[in-house]
Specification:
By secondary structure, the protein is of the alpha+beta class. The chain has 18 helices and 9 strands. 45% of the residues lie in helices and 8% in strands. It starts with 5 loop residues before the first helix and ends with a helix.
């Protein structure tokens, strides 16, 4: 079955349901003429993700058989980063990421997200309507990426456009070339003028990355931190506005933003299908013969919605696979959650009567095998004036001053503790009360 085209984009759940008739692993096409095995069962997905020796990530043997213009190649081709390596090489490259992320102070990051959100909301708050995807959910991760990378805005714009086109399979070969050019420019800039930012910290790490390794580490972080983050924010806002469970007062049974975020990560994860691995030999797995060196792709969306999990309580349950699992689980899930939750809190706090401008079933989804992404998120609201906080002072230290190198990668986890439930509020507008509670005010 195809994982591309408007029919799949409009209703991927129907495709996953049909694929389950084959069992926990089913044959699919990622693009015309690009076959793969898609893991749609939750337990089977964990078995693959937790067994990198049998399911390694290096795609080069498969890649050698693909034509250069294969549309999914830029998303799946080998890069010398922590996503496409295993064993000691993976541990070395992942340590650079985790140690650099450890230098990002969560309180400083939250404050910057809040200030950035206020500035973006102020641009359209007086209009009474907006496309929250283009005017908010897309721009906020881009601006945070520019901030974390110390990246000039015009270079950040080019990088994100290239990454978006790779996800959408829009001239992906051309987009990949542009992405590489932009990263070369960023690395050259940081070699000349290092600063308090992720590229500079990664350059100074004891692992001593080559320029090629550095470029591709930055690519995987940017790929995870912009396009999926944008979709996580947009899908979360869509759920809050369209789902009755989240539309009433807190005392009437609605769930707070953090639980809405978990619901999205369970039901509509922004990376729906990814994490390809390539068996080293023909392998019998879950009743299916998997060919050697052919992609085995994890459907995070289908696995999360496996009927075998139907009886489980999801409120406060973070055992979903939206962040993957095992040694390749997302190392940036905590800052990613923080950015998304603050983005959702701020928009709901500022525009308490916000509502979808079209029926939810008229929202259009972008095609592509890998992501779950809207084309637009039109909303209406009462026009308001939003105060904007001043920017940081010049030279302000935003992050931890001391590096935290380590000689090994800490074990990855597949779930995190559930936060304490928010105390009940009395009446609407509950968005405002909830946001103040969550920020401790």
């Amino acid at each position: 079955m195809p994982l591309y085209g408007p029919e799949f984009a409009a209703d991927p759940a129907a495709t996953y349901q049909a694929l389950r008739e084959h069992g926990p692993v089913a044959p699919v096409e990622l693009a015309p003429g690009v076959p793969a095995s898609l893991v749609v069962g939750y337990s089977a997905a964990l078995d693959v993700l937790r067994n990198p020796s049998a399911f390694p990530r290096d795609p080069r043997q498969w890649q050698a058989k693909m034509p250069p213009d294969c549309p999914v190649l830029p998303m799946m081709m080998y890069r010398p980063n922590c996503l496409f390596t295993d064993g000691a090489q993976h541990a070395r490259l992942r340590a650079v990421v985790t140690d650099s992320l450890a230098r990002v102070d969560a309180n400083a990051l939250r404050a910057h997200v809040e200030r950035t959100a206020d500035r973006l909301i102020a641009r359209f708050a007086r209009d009474g309507e907006a496309d929250l995807l283009g005017a908010y959910a897309q721009l906020l991760p881009l601006m945070m990426f520019n901030h974390l990378y110390g990246c000039p805005p015009e270079l950040g714009d080019r990088l994100v456009v290239a990454m978006r086109d790779i996800f959408d399979l829009v001239e992906p070969e051309k987009a990949n070339a542009e992405l590489t050019r932009c990263m070369l420019e960023l690395v050259a800039l940081k070699r000349q003028r290092p600063g308090q930012d992720m590229p500079s910290w990664m350059m100074a790490h004891p692992a001593r990355l080559t320029d090629e390794e550095l470029i591709h580490q930055l690519i995987v972080l940017m790929g995870a931190g912009t396009e999926p983050e944008k979709n996580l924010i947009a899908n979360g806002i869509r759920l809050l506005l369209a789902d009755d469970r989240f539309a009433g007062t807190l005392s009437g049974g609605s769930l707070p933003v953090e639980e809405a975020l978990d619901e999205v990560l369970w039901t509509d994860p922004p990376m729906a299908n990814y994490s390809a691995s390539y068996p080293v030999e023909d392998t019998d797995f879950a009743g299916v013969r998997l060919p050697a060196a052919e992609p085995v792709v994890i459907s995070f969306s289908a696995a999360n919605n496996d009927p075998a999990l139907a009886g489980q309580q999801r409120s406060g349950n973070r055992a979903h696979l939206a962040w993957s699992a095992g040694v390749h689980s997302c190392p940036a899930q905590q800052p990613a959650r923080l950015i998304a939750s603050v983005a959702m809190e701020k928009i709901l706090d500022a525009l308490p009567d916000m509502r979808l401008a079209v029926p939810v079933d008229q929202l259009v989804w972008r095609p592509g095998p890998f992501h779950r992404a809207l084309t637009a998120l039109p909303v209406r609201f009462t026009p308001v004036a939003v105060p904007v906080h001043p920017d940081e002072s010049p030279g302000e230290t935003r992050w931890n001053d001391q590096p935290t190198p380590s000689s090994s990668t800490p074990p990855a986890v597949t779930s995190t503790p559930s936060p304490r439930p928010s105390p009940p509020a009395v009446r609407r507008p509950w968005w405002s009360s909830l946001a103040r509670l969550w920020r401790g005010r």
